[in-house]
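Thread: "does anyone have the structure for this chain?"

Original post by V.I.:
We have the sequence but no experimental structure in hand. Need at least a predicted one for the grant figures.
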Amino acid sequence: MPNIIVMPSALSMPAPQALNPLHEFAVPQFEVVRKKLDDRGVGHRILSAMKINILSFLALSACLVLLPGCIGTQDGHSVAGVPFTKDRIVSRYARPVAQLTAATRIVLNRNGKLLVDNTVNNTFEAKVNQHTVWVKVADVDGRITEVIVQARGSMGGDVDTAAEISKQIGMMLVAGPGQN
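Reply from O.Q.:
Generated one for you, tokens below.
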């Protein structure tokens, strides 16, 4: 059954003989006008506007989260990437810096290609399995040396590669840098 609205007639009153006998209780100054909106009415337009606003907000939020930002690397530079992924492993050893840098060189050369070997600040950059790996060796105090391994791929941080490189550096310290 269609929705019907009764509105006052702006035209003229119908003549008494033209009235329908079924409308004997009808007020003559009103006439029946069909509703011109669809069955959903005005509420549908409000809900669709709210849906558009909510979907726009969600799309904007997704873009802000998923679009890349800048990430600081261990050698002090910035690269593009997704900033909210875990990509680094920090290890501490009771060994001198010279032993750790030698072990790091061997491990990075064994697993991939060593690209940068900075002896001034003891940072390394290498390509390992299509991932970029940065390693920083720093003296914490006279007895403890810290090794930070950071690995990033095309889709973001790769903590598994960083953990593997860190583990191999530790194993190289135990085996000694001269042994294979």
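V.I.: this helps a lot. The longest helix spans residues 41-66.
O.Q.: and The beta strands are 4-8, 30-34, 69-72, 78-81, 88-93, 113-118, 123-128, 131-139, 145-153, 156-157.
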